Amino acid sequence: MVLGIMRIIGNNKVDRNLLRGMFSVLGATGLDAICRLLVVMILVRYYSKESFGVWAAITSVAAIVVTGDFGIINALRNKISQLLVEENESNVISQKYFYSAFYFFLLIAIVLALLLLCFTPYIPFESLFKTNDFELQSIGVKILIYVQIIFVFTIPLTIGNSLYFTFQESHFSALFTSLQAVFTVLIIYILSLCHVSIVFISIAYFLINTLFSFWGTLYFVFRHKWFHFKVSWRDIYKCNIELFKVGIKFMSLQLSSSFLQNAGTIIASAVLGVKIAADYSMYTKLYTLGIAIFQSVFNPLWGSYAAAIYRRDFVWCQRTYYYNLKIIFFIFISFSVLLCFCGNFFLRIIASEEYSTSFVMYLLLGISTLFFMLFNSASIIPKACNRINILLVISIISCILITPVANLSLKNMGLYGLPVTTTLFWGVSYWVMHWQTKRIINEK
Question: Residues of 284-313 as b/e, b for ≥16 C-beta within 10 angstroms?
Fold first, then answer.
């Protein structure tokens, strides 16, 4: 893997920054994934399986809610990348776009929080938690409401974090990710020792993440001396309209991709019950560790692909893309083989004897994970050049079809039907995006 990366990276400053950013983000995300596993280990030991199942379902739903930034964050990153080339060091126009997006999302967060509180009695959140314990179901709904309110405010408070990648400062993002991960484990462990309610545990878990991301944004503002806070209502409107035209596609893509990634646990909770959802969530946690660690390098790569496409260096794009595919094949096939034979051993370490599954389940989850990572790799170049129409179409179609297909496969194959379904969707999506990526990098 290291040799493949070293062949890609050159000796100039930009490439050295990319390499440093990739490895710093890789390390930080690896630490974050390990800390998330430690949180799971703590929760399964101090709380019942049904309580953990509620928590697993909520984290899956929350992962979808947090992506609802209208795609403007990605559009903002691309816009500021363009302005960095055109502006002088003052970055006045960049600051105008930054604060326009910040104020817009802050206003949206206030409105959405009020609407959520007003309409909560009319939204059937309890259908997400299939259990005969109505008190636990009520607790799940309460946690979900609080978490959604936290997340709508997370979007404006964490905008600065995404811009570290634009400025080739991924190591700062990695630093705040590492601090947040370690602090989360410590707080959750202390609260669990005190037998604090799962409601408070869940709120603390998500609130810590928001606070550290906000501190990352504050550091970004002070580091770059972006103190032009005053933006007219006219500029806020004009900037966000411009960003929204590009961002609407990214928004749809973010929501659909996030739903697909978390669909297994959500469907298991709604159809089979929170206990089965807890089991399935635990099986997938092992693969999630590998996904989270490796997927972190995609952010620095996105910017490098965009720069290479802008200078029409398609040879570099092609070489980098195919090296990336080879690395993914090697790592995730090896990882799947390891889990097929040692997965239950790791589950006993993470959780307890209560959680175990078969060789076939690990194999199916491994194949699904491999296609998911290949799909993500094949999607980066289209995202980098804003050619995401095909990606958006297949993601939306998959969102529409995955629930009925999963229900059918669950009836015929039981819980095995979930990884079979996700393998089908990720496999087809990968081949479509691979075809489009080849078309882009073959352009002259």
Answer: bbbbbbbbbbbbbbbbbbbbbbbbbbeeee
| Distance separating alpha carbons of residues 362 and 341, to the nearest angstrom | 9
Cβ–Cβ under 8 Å, residues 148 and 66: no
| Gap between the Cα atoms of 64 and 151, Å rounded | 10
Give yes or no for a contact between 437 and 382, defined as CB atoms under 8 angstroms apart: yes
pTM of the model: 0.71
Give φ, ψ of 107 to 5 degrees: -65, -45
pLDDT digits (tens, 9 = 90+) for 384-434: 787 888 999 999 999 999 989 998 998 888 889 999 999 999 999 999 999
Average pLDDT of the chain to the nearest whole number: 82
What domain range is 406 assigned to?
2-441
- Chain centroid to Cα 212, Å, comes to 17
- pLDDT digits 0-9 by tens, 35-46: 888 888 888 887
Residue 177 in this model has a pLDDT that exceeds 60: yes
How far apart CA 116 and CA 110 sit, in angstroms, is: 10
* CA–CA dist 167, 292 (Å, integer): 23
Of all residues in the chain, what percent carry a pLDDT higher than 90? 27
3 state SS for the chain = CHHHHHHHCCCCHHHHHHHHHHHHHHHHHHHHHHHHHHHHHHHHHHCCHHHHHHHHHHHHHHHHHCCCCCCHHHHHHHHHHHHHHHCCCCCHHHHHHHHHHHHHHHHHHHHHHHHHHHHHHHCCHHHHCCCCCHHHHHHHHHHHHHHHHHHHHHHHHCHHHHHHHHCCCHHHHHHHHHHHHHHHHHHHHHHHHCCCCHHHHHHHHHHHHHHHHHHHHHHHHHHHCCCCCCCCHHHHHHHHHHHHHHHHHHHHHHHHHHHHHHHHHHHHHHHHCHHHHHHHHHHHHHHHHHHHHHHCCHHHHHHHHHHHHHCCCHHHHHHHHHHHHHHHHHHHHHHHHHHHHHHHHHHHHHCCCCCCCCHHHHHHHHHHHHHHHHHHHHHHHHHHCCCCHHHHHHHHHHHHHHHHHHHHHHHHHHHHHHHHHHHHHHHHHHHHHHHHHHHHHCCC
Indicate the number of domains in the chain.
1
